[in-house]
Amino acid sequence: DNGGFQPHGFNLGNPAGNAHLRAARWQALFAPYGIYNFQKGTGGADVGPLLAYGTTVAGLLPDSQRYFDYHHTTIDSIDKVNKRELELGAAAMAALVYLVDQHGL
Questions:
Q1: What is the C-alpha to C-alpha distance for residues 5 and 84, in angstroms, rounded to an integer?
Q2: HSE of 61 in the Cβ direction (CA atoms, 13 Å)?
Q3: CB 38 within 8 A of CB 46
Q4: Contact 70, 43 (CB under 8 A)
């Protein structure tokens, strides 16, 4: 959970350790939307354990500058979520899933 802010990239992992490099070939498609960071990772705590089963995993990397303005504070509530930023994150993940489905990773 990195918050629902403007997406800037993805962290990707696979058993071979090269998922982030393979996904980076689509960087030009994402760049106009401010998505430029394709880094090696484990996809996050919720999907990371799937790596042990040979699964490729991915997680969204949103802008983290305002994360601790909200996280575990009295204003950490769903009504504070910026609808547009959440939509951009959902669209980014959908685009990544589409590209992986159509072209492989």
A1: 9
A2: 18
A3: no
A4: no
pTM for the structure as a whole: 0.85
Summarised one tens digit per residue, pLDDT across range 58-85 is: 999 988 776 667 677 887 878 878 899 9
The CA-CA-CA angle for residues 6, 7, 10, to 5°, reads 165
What are 60's strand-pairing partners?
A: 10
* Amino acid present at 13: G
Contact by Cβ (8 Å): 15, 40 = no
37 and 96 in contact (C-beta within 8 Å)? no
- Do 98 and 51 form a contact (C-beta atoms < 8 A)? no
Per-residue pLDDT, averaged over 92-105, amounts to 95
Which residues, in sequence order, are CB contacts of 67 under 8 Å at separation 6+? Answer: 2, 3, 5
Q: What is the pLDDT of residue 7?
A: 94
Residue with tokens 């030009």: 28
